[in-house]
Write a structure and sequence with these properties.
It is a single chain. With about 475 residues, this protein is of the alpha+beta class. It folds into 2 domains: about 15-295 and about 440-480, 2-methylcitrate dehydratase PrpD (Orthogonal Bundle), CATH 1.10.4100.10; about 300-425, 2-methylcitrate dehydratase PrpD (60s Ribosomal Protein L30, Chain: A, 2-Layer Sandwich), CATH 3.30.1330.120. The protein contains 21 helices and 8 strands. The strands form 3 sheets. The chain has a 4-stranded mixed sheet. Strands 1-2 form a two-stranded antiparallel ribbon. Strand 7 (about 405-415) and strand 8 form a beta hairpin. The longest helix is centred in the N-terminal third of the chain and has 21 residues, at about 30-50. The chain is globular and about 70 Å long. The N and C termini lie far apart (about 85 Å). This is 2-methylcitrate dehydratase PrpD. One of its GO terms (molecular function) is lyase activity. InterPro entries: MmgE/PrpD_sf (IPR036148), MmgE/PrpD_sf_1 (IPR042183), MmgE/PrpD_sf_2 (IPR042188), MmgE_PrpD (IPR005656), MmgE_PrpD_C (IPR045337), MmgE_PrpD_N (IPR045336).
Amino acid sequence: MGPSSPKQSAKPEPTTQLSSWISSATLNDIPEEIRVRAKHLILDGLGCGLLGAHLPSSEKAARAIFDLEPVGDATVIGWPDKKLPSLSAALLNSAFIQGFELDDWHSEAPIHSNSILLPALFAAAEHVVSKDNKSSLVSGSDILLATIIGYEVGPRVGLALHGAHVLTTGWHSGAVFGPAVAASAVGKLLGLTPEQIEDAFGVACTQACGLMSAQFGSEVKRMQHGFAARNGLLAAFLAQGGYIGIKRVFEQEYGGFLKQFSSGNGMEPQYLVDELTKDLGVKWQTQGVRVKPYASMAGTHPTIDCVRKLQELYPEPMQNWTSDIAKITIELGEAAFHHGGWKAIRPLTSTGAQMSNAYVAATQIVYGEVLAAQFRHDMLENDNLWRLVDVTDCVLTKEIGAPRGRQTVTVEFKDGTVLRQRVDSARGVEPPLSNQEIIEKWRQITKDVIDIERAEKIERLVLELEKCDDIMLLQGLMGGLTKNPIA
């Protein structure tokens, strides 16, 4: 009998496939429109960081960490006289980007990518430069490629857990998906091998967590993506040093990432491991990253749009809100209801206010907009606004086949008038904000926190990122002093 035929090689498992793709991807593999979009998304993330650096909760976190940690080499956004070790800088800068609910989110797998990616990558870049005594340079192209890797990985991890459904089970979705995101992007920046990236995933995923109860009144909601940024950064550094992580961490049956975080979710199948690698390098998840026009949780945005439309169509009755509105009803889909349909009770922190559909609807009615200024402490104590919150009910609707972003607002007046408005998708979702609209948002949110010349320099650097040979030029601009936008 002759020699047996060689066995066909088995298809690599998802963790291995994903790690290999991350290691081998180049900027030339990425379509130009995706690279251009990514630069605008990065600009938005940096703007949110500048806006958030000196908010009251940010300053409390900063002072605690400055007291705790020694001086390091990593820039802290908006604090020119402070430097921190890489891990702590990533944590703090992430809290700044997440500081006012104005940062990006993914429309299918909720995650605030920039608050994880930018802090981890910039801290890693400064570590590389400082470790090599400034003989190494990290270029804008290096950062751009690594950021796009993260934009691609995060939603895939989220979709494998049924995306927004994670919110209905009480997990803070982005904080759960996030450690793997930071590990993948930093792993790419450091030039890790596929095996090292798999180790980084295995170290990152075991640190994943985030309780959605943080939304009701705590300030730690601002920092939970920062835990993910820090932990993923640590995972990549450990893997670079040869530290062995959990192998096949996503698909492991016993104690694996997808199995554990989908436990008890009631879905069939429980998780979707194929989403990790589905259409890699063909379908670009970066296109699903959305930029927020309002300073509140994404699930409140359709509510705001409903109220805005009512104000446009019926300006006279909607201006008589003080005494004439008897009841407001907000109809929400499952994820939005569990996330923002809870009963807001006074007193409320800005975090809780920005996460409540009832409070945000009242804010739009009373103030005519939902931006940073509407969440100053004195604004949170507005008696007229709270009267509207008290007469608002959020109800769960499960319309078969309805768009996931559909919401309806009904306003009933004491004279019997009833006004009703429905939207199927929020502004900035379908269609997404254009690149030009993102630039306009950047200019709007930075105009009161940094000077125009500095803002223009950052804008030019980011939008021409491939021409930047040394990313420390951008870091120098980000580290300059910023102002508190709600002082």
